[in-house]
Design goal:
The complex is a heterodimer of chains A (about 325) and B (about 475). Chain A has about 325 residues and is an alpha+beta fold. Chain A has three domains: about 30 residues, no CATH class; about 35 residues, no CATH class; about 200 residues, Cytochrome c-like domain (Cytochrome Bc1 Complex, Chain D, domain 2, Orthogonal Bundle), CATH 1.10.760.10. In chain A, about 45% of the residues lie in helices and about 15% in strands. Chain A has a two-stranded antiparallel ribbon with strand order 1-2. In chain A, a hairpin with a 3-residue loop joins strand 1 and strand 2. In chain A, helix 8 packs across helix 13 and helix 9 packs across helix 10. Chain A is elongated. The termini of chain A are far apart. With about 475 residues, chain B is of the alpha+beta class. Chain B folds into three domains: about 200 residues, no CATH class; about 90 residues, no CATH class; about 110 residues, Immunoglobulin-like (Sandwich), CATH 2.60.40.10. Classes of the chains: A alpha+beta (about 325), B alpha+beta (about 475). The interface between A and B is large, with 43 and 42 residues.
């Protein structure tokens, strides 16, 4: 069968070879490619040459052939929300800008933004679609602006940046308060008691504060500390309140709960360590170390509103 | 070497297949009509579907929904497509191993469209001899009109084929209007133009070259052949006799006269070669170009009928039968393919029939893993993704199980009405009271089970998702 096939494929009747002979008699059949195939091949070569001119291609000296292709994209100003049409030569960055512009000017996104802008906080929280949108956009905003200090998930760093996921808020955890914090910024302050109180008094106050959250048992020392705390000697109650639960208007900490934002008491093992750490903190106070910048000049009010809702849902304070 | 310089590139020899009548031609025409009816008319079929498009078969890519009659497929069920492709592949192996290139000969769209184009060609330009004459003749008025007419009709068929394909992806009546008014999406124009071009070129101009040079299936199908596979073959013993084939001539008319002189039943009329769409001579045996279209069988049967000789000089047979051996159809290979094919089909049908009306996924938010609240209780947060796969609204309820004292807080979205085909992500907070026990286990990883139930609008088994719940590490 194979002999017949080979023969009949050649209309002339004789088998055509490529014309070479190796080792005297070794020859190769000529099975030519179809001509259209050849022309398609030439076509691809022509295409590749045109491609060089349209897209960035060859390096030339310290520059390169930049190509005639361009990309049109839209830039949205973060502050004013103004859209501006731009054009730049084709490269992958232009394509990225095109995608970013398309996302920022997406009609569905714009409609949703307008809806969130118009709604008040209670409406947003009750609307699953709006909350989905806020969490999605807010995650990006938070990542760009807040995560550097507060961490990707808002968990903060004990001693440096507050944890935004718990329910303990120095300046108030309602959305309106968070919005205010974002707009104006905050500056935490506590005077240094080192120069005011004697070391023994500092020990006593520290002991008393530890008893407030059951980190230490009441003792004579804590009783002395209470007098200093609640009296004119220390005057701690001015800011922390007589019940030591803090005053959001002052940004003073609630000393009776389990959360320690600055001194990581739960991480310390022995009562001595806890007391010593707290004493050091009380004598040094807080001055210019806990500052939240104001965002009203950096972000649009809509972005701040989105962030306020986003941060609030991290903590979920009712 | 004394041979003339060999040509490295082969010029194509135009094939002008002759038309033929017969049982296989009728079968092929039947398949063709059926296939075209389905392909061209299906996009126009409507289907009553509340809250969703009313096109019976619609692949809505932007909406990520695939509507096939009563079945609505969501993206997460796209693995069914893989199932369908696997079934098709095994079906191809199974059928090819058993019956040869049935796909190529009867069902392949290249074959179908080429057939249709040849019908147009024959209708306008006449049968083979007329076409050869026209081809060789000068470009006069007749050739211009006939060729032009053929190309015009081809082009229209190509365009309508391309447009019909596009109709499967958008609402068909809207598309046709928009397309003609120039306001259809760019993708619709591109798809239609692309398919118009390829249909015209492949079915009108390239034809058998697609099967011979381009098609990968044509090549790997031969790997599935064995000696029992059904093939179309010339009965060489009967056709050639002892002295070879001979034309009808004086003293060579009847079978008896011919057999007396050692001539076979093949009268070398060449009809089988003329009807062949790939331009081979079946009498040379099994060839890789052969697409098993069976038209040579019809051609030869016509001649045999005229001669009043028995049919079957060219017929469906197998290599084993040609060698005088028995053809075995029930072999481990075919049985194996059959079993896999049945299993895959049953699995797919089972998967489609038992599909759930909605999906619910729960993912833990891992930054932070847990949060300690002011009263010492521990909270973990989760993201819940819900997807209503129905084209009707449904209500979903979410609760938790398996974690003592745990409270679920979803800002009163624990019970939620989902719009038809709505997808949504929700936040869930799970809180447990302060961990008091110092004697018990000091595990830092617990588990909580989310139960997502269909409360209204659908009946289904609740979805249960067990996810980790982290608490601070014990000392």
């Amino acid at each position: 069968m194979s002999d017949k096939t080979a023969n009949t494929q050649q209309s002339s009747g004789t088998v055509q070879t490529t014309g070479h002979a190796w080792d005297g008699d070794l020859q190769e059949y000529n099975n030519p490619l179809p001509r259209w195939w050849l022309w398609c091949f030439y076509g691809t070569i022509v295409f590749s040459i045109l491609y060089w001119f349209v897209y960035p291609s060859w390096p030339v000296g310290d520059t390169w052939i930049k190509g005639t292709g361009t990309v049109d994209y839209t830039v949205v100003d973060k502050g004013t929300g103004k859209e501006q049409a731009k054009e730049y030569r084709w490269n992958t960055r232009s394509l990225l800008l095109e995608d970013l512009g398309a996302a920022a000017t997406d009609p569905q996104r714009k409609a949703m933004l307008a809806k969130v802008e118009a709604a008040d906080y209670d409406q947003i929280v009750k609307d699953p679609k709006m909350m989905e949108f806020v969490r999605s956009v807010g995650k990006g905003l938070f990542g760009d602006n807040c995560a550097a200090c507060h961490g990707r998930g808002g968990q903060g760093v004990v001693g440096l940046y507050p944890n935004l996921t718990d329910d303990d808020w120095l300046w108030g955890g309602k959305m309106a308060k968070i919005n205010e914090t974002l707009m104006q910024g905050r500056k935490g302050f506590m005077p240094a008691f080192g120069p005011v109180l004697k070391p023994e008094q500092l020990d006593d106050v520290a002991e008393y504060v530890l008893t407030l959250s059951n980190e230490a048992q009441p003792s004579e020392a804590s009783a002395r500390g209470k007098e200093i705390f609640q009296g004119q000697v220390g005057g701690c109650y001015y800011c922390h309140g007589a019940d030591a639960k803090g005053l959001p208007s002052q940004g003073s900490a609630n000393l009776t709960d389990k959360i320690w934002a600055i001194v990581n008491i739960p991480a310390l093992k022995t009562p001595q360590e806890k007391q010593a750490a707290l004493k050091t903190f009380i004598s040094n106070g807080v001055n210019n170390t806990r500052v939240m910048p104001a965002w009203k000049d950096r972000l649009s009010s809509t972005d701040i509103k989105l962030l306020a809702v986003y941060v609030h849902q991290l903590s979920g304070v009712k | 070497m004394s041979e003339p310089t060999p040509s490295l590139y082969q010029k194509r020899i135009q094939i002008h297949p002759r038309s033929v009548k017969g049982q296989f031609r009728n079968l092929k025409t039947g398949v063709l009509v059926l296939a075209y009816l389905v392909f061209f008319l299906l996009p126009w079929l409507r289907w009553d579907r509340p809250n969703a498009p009313d096109q019976a078969v619609l692949y809505d890519l932007p909406g990520r929904h695939f509507y096939i009659f009563g079945l609505t497929i969501q993206v997460q069920d796209i693995f069914w497509l893989a199932g369908v492709l696997i079934i098709f592949a095994i079906l191809l192996f199974f059928v090819t191993g058993l019956a040869g290139r049935v796909w190529c000969g009867y069902f392949c769209f290249q074959t179908l469209w080429t057939d249709l184009y040849m019908m147009v060609e024959k209708w306008i330009q006449g049968d083979r001899p007329a076409r050869i004459r026209l081809d060789k003749g000068p470009w006069n008025r007749e050739k211009f009109i006939k060729r032009g007419g053929t190309y015009a009709i081809w082009l229209f068929i190509a365009f309508w084929s391309g447009l019909s394909f596009t109709m499967y992806w958008v609402d068909a009546p809207t598309l046709v209007v928009d397309f003609l008014l120039g306001r259809a999406p760019y993708a619709a124009y591109f798809t239609t133009f692309f398919l118009t071009t390829t249909t015209f070129v492949m079915a009108g101009l390239a034809r058998e070259q697609v099967c011979v040079y381009m098609c990968p299936y044509a090549r790997f199908q031969s790997a599935m052949f064995d000696h029992d596979t059904l093939i179309i073959s010339y009965e060489a013993k009967r056709g050639e006799g002892t002295q070879g084939r001979a034309k009808l001539g004086k003293g060579m008319k009847t079978r008896e006269e011919r057999q007396a002189q050692g001539a076979g039943d093949c009268i070398d009329c060449g009809y089988c070669v003329q009807v062949c769409p790939v331009g081979i001579d079946i009498r040379n045996g099994l060839q890789y170009q052969c697409i098993s279209c069976a038209l040579c069988i019809d051609a030869c049967d016509t001649i045999m009928d005229n001669q009043k000789w028995p049919r079957g000089l060219i017929h469906y047979t197998s290599e084993n039968a040609l060698q005088g051996r028995k053809t075995t159809l029930l072999k481990p290979k075919t049985v194996g393919y059959g079993v896999i094919l049945t299993a895959a089909t049953v699995l797919l049908i089972w998967s489609v029939v038992t599909r759930s009306p909605y999906t619910g996924m729960v993912e833990q938010i891992r930054q932070p893993l847990y949060t300690q609240l002011s009263d010492g209780s521990i909270r973990n947060t989760y993201e819940i993704k819900l997807n209503n796969k129905l084209t009707a609204p449904m209500t979903v309820g979410i609760r938790i199980e398996g974690l003592p004292g745990a409270v679920l807080d979803m800002d009163s979205m624990e019970r939620l009405k989902l719009a038809p085909q709505e997808r949504i992500k929700l936040l869930a907070r799970v809180q447990i009271p302060p961990v008091q026990d110092d004697s018990g286990k000091k595990n830092d990883r617990d588990e909580v089970t989310f139960v997502i139930e269909a409360l209204e609008g659908a009946t289904a088994e609740p979805i249960r998702r067990e996810v980790p719940f982290y608490v601070p590490e014990g000392d």
